[in-house]
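Input sequence (165 aa), recorded before submission:
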Amino acid sequence: MRTKSLVCGCIILLVIVVTMATPCFAVNLIYGCVKGNGDLQIVSGPGQCKANQTPISWPAGEGLAVVSGWIRYDGVPVLGDGFTSTQDTNNGVYYITFNQDFTGDPGCTISLLSTPTPTAFCSIIGVGPSILDVQCVSYEIGSGGTLVNPSNQVGFAFLCVGSVN
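Predicted structure, token format:
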């Protein structure tokens, strides 16, 4: 009888300790849904992604920064802050410089916004603590599969998340 009481007492004590300690180890998270094309949508909690989206989450809190913006086809920022942008019209590279360096390479994603032609793509070609380099190309496919009206002016949005001091 005494052994059962001791075991029950230990179990109750363990439940109390775990219940009290849980808030100390709780981690605030940022939740998102990644579409098949790589677009990221920030959501308010888990379970909000559609069937064709991949749910992701990462820790939030002090020391975490998000830099995002919309870059117009001519390299001019339309929305966002915490960065500057320039464009090399010869090769379609957009150079985004963060106002505050991340402590390491941030995680970044990009999405097309506007194109002068029906076919376009953008790729991240460089990322570092202070920079994001994106190359964009748009074109039409002419008869015989030739490229017609190539252009390096494509609008896009970006989102970078990483640690800061």
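Checked by second reader. The longest helix spans residues 2-25.
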